[in-house]
Design brief:
Layout: H1 2-11, H2 36-53, H3 58-74, H4 78-91, H5 97-108, H6 112-125, H7 130-142, H8 146-159, H9 164-176, H10 180-193, H11 199-210, H12 214-221, H13 234-240, H14 246-258, H15 262-275, H16 280-292, H17 296-309, H18 314-326, H19 330-343, H20 347-359, H21 363-374, H22 381-393, H23 397-410, H24 415-426, H25 433-449, H26 453-465, H27 469-486, H28 494-503
Length: about 525
């Protein structure tokens, strides 16, 4: 088998693809000795591979082999990983990741000649790749091809001047030439870039000793440690991530998104999805980010995938409802939000559902869902206000009063709460004198703070409710004037209707007319799934 693999690598660059009967058998590891969580990860990875391999061909099959190889390599199953990467490289010849992982495997297992040949292939696919240049230079050093190593390492430094591993490699090039002063200079540079790379102190100490700097040699040898200069290597970082389950990264992604770090969250979700393409939490996270970025088509694709994997994913159903609402499909949105509430009764989902019901004029249903959300321990003033508005729209002002008073106690400066109280006391509630006087005070404060159509109309209602009809006519006239200025009088017939009522010594009957825009609360554009 070893001779066969070596022969394969000799012609690998010339092979565009292999047929299935030319692929290497994978020596799948026995998982019994692994911890349960690792056993589950590797068994899941193999199961997904076997499922894909039933139908996949060409690059798609290569991807399946490559993904399985990443899992095996991350858990030090080198033989299985090598076979996977050999097959992936042959089947997916334009993807530089697979030969890169294969070359790293050869370098780490001491097969430096093979590593050099495959690293050269990587550079043909990905010219100038810094980790490849660095690792190739170090592998060439192991073969004593010093001049070639120097060329590759210098190219890596030109592309990435803070490359500590490449400077350490140049120091070793200088050592091979007995140029100890250059070796010292390069080791010092590497240490300045990575002070934590404590093994460099040993190498620098030895260089000082050979240069005759005995005291400096002692100083550095006393600081020696085991940590080598590391390479900034995204592909290996990605591979190392596979030592943890996908759910771990999905949770970190949720945390990052909650902290407003959407770019970091997207990276974490991507890692989780790559580790396990069936990880629903990661898929919903990717959908949430697409939604926040305004990419609703992409969000729907992710959500359809998530729901296909788990039809009872409350979070996927919730988010799909929000996407559908924003896309104008309120009926579908309501259906998915209702399913989400049935599966996991989060107050925030109730709010999303109630908002949607309000937007479609289903006020009594909206009030029922808002009421549940408003009873939650951390219910916001806004939720109680919305619940009150739903009750008002449904014709139940008495139920709205308690909610508005509770919201007012929490935030007396919330103008829309004060305005709503003034209006219901002045119209749809059989208010006593104390409440009517409160309505006048509320309305006057609002009007004095910001004279407008809305506040003058509210003050007119309060004046009429306390029998001050002449004042009510005056303030209503001001409201009508404001509507005329904006060209909105034709759309607000209640202004003229109430004016006639005040002139006839009658109070207003409704705080707002049925169908008024104040009741059409739109769902907030948010992907939060719980309070």
């Amino acid at each position: 088998m070893k001779n066969f693999i070596a022969g394969l690598l000799g012609v690998l660059i010339a092979l565009p693809a292999w047929s299935a009967d030319q692929l290497l058998d994978i020596p799948h590891p026995i998982l019994d000795e692994y911890k349960p969580e690792v056993r589950a990860m590797l068994a899941g990875a193999r199961g997904r591979f076997e499922l894909m391999s039933l139908e996949a061909t060409g690059p798609d099959l290569g991807l399946a082999y490559g993904r399985l190889g990443i899992h095996y390599y991350a858990h030090a199953e080198q033989d299985a990983a090598r076979a996977c990467f050999v097959n992936a490289t042959a089947l997916d010849p334009d993807n530089f990741r697979w030969p890169y992982y294969l070359a790293v495997h050869y370098a780490e297992t001491g097969a430096f000649a093979r590593a050099v040949r495959v690293f050269d292939r990587v550079l043909a696919l990905q010219p100038g790749d810094v980790p490849t240049l660095t690792r190739l230079g170090l592998a060439l050093l192991e073969l004593d091809r010093v001049d070639e190593a120097e060329t590759r390492l210098k190219a890596a430094i030109v592309a990435q001047p803070a490359n500590a591993a490449a400077f350490a490699g140049l120091a070793r090039v200088a050592e091979r030439r007995d140029d100890w002063e250059s070796a010292i200079t390069h080791y010092q540079k590497a240490l300045s870039l990575q002070p934590e790379a404590s093994q460099l102190h040993y190498r620098l100490g030895q260089a000082h000793r050979r240069a005759g700097n005995i005291e400096l040699a002692k100083t550095h040898l006393q600081q020696r440690g085991q940590r080598i200069a590391s390479i900034d290597d995204p592909l290996l970082t990605f591979m190392d991530a596979h030592t943890r389950p996908a759910g771990y990264y999905a949770i970190l992604g949720d945390k990052a998104l909650g902290e407003g770090e959407s770019a970091r969250a997207a990276t974490l979700y991507d890692v989780a999805y790559a580790i396990d393409p069936t990880q629903v939490g990661a898929i919903v996270g990717l959908a949430r980010i697409a939604f926040l970025d305004g990419e609703n088509v992409r969000a729907r694709e992710w959500l359809d995938l998530a729901i296909g994997l788990d039809k009872d994913s409350w979070s996927a159903l919730q988010l799909k409802g929000l996407v559908e609402l924003q896309d104008g499909d309120a009926s579908a949105a309501i259906g998915n939000l209702e399913k989400s509430v049935m599966l996991q009764d989060f107050p925030q989902t109730r709010v999303f559902l109630a908002n949607t019901l309000m937007a479609t004029g289903r006020f009594a249903e909206a009030a029922r869902h808002y009421d549940v959300a408003a009873k939650a321990a951390n219910a916001s003033t806004e939720v109680r206000y919305r619940a009150a508005m739903a009750h008002i729209a449904a014709g139940n002002c008495n139920a709205a009063e308690a909610l508005l008073l509770s919201a007012y106690e929490d935030d007396p400066a919330m103008a829309k709460v004060v305005l709503a109280l003034a209006r219901i006391y002045s119209s749809c509630i059989d208010a006593d004198d104390e409440k009517l006087q409160a309505a006048v005070r509320y309305a006057e404060v609002l009007y004095n703070g910001h004279p407008s159509l809305e506040t003058s109309e509210t003050l007119a209602m309060a004046m009429a409710a306390t029998g001050r009809f002449d004042d009510a006519v005056d303030y209503q006239a001001q409201a009508i004037f404001e509507a005329l200025k904006t060209g909105g009088l034709d759309h607000q017939p209640q202004l003229q209707q109430n004016m006639e009522r005040y002139r006839n010594q009658q109070r207003a009957m409704l705080p707002w007319p049925s169908g008024h825009a104040v009741f059409s609360l739109q769902a907030e554009r948010s992907a939060e799934t719980s309070e």
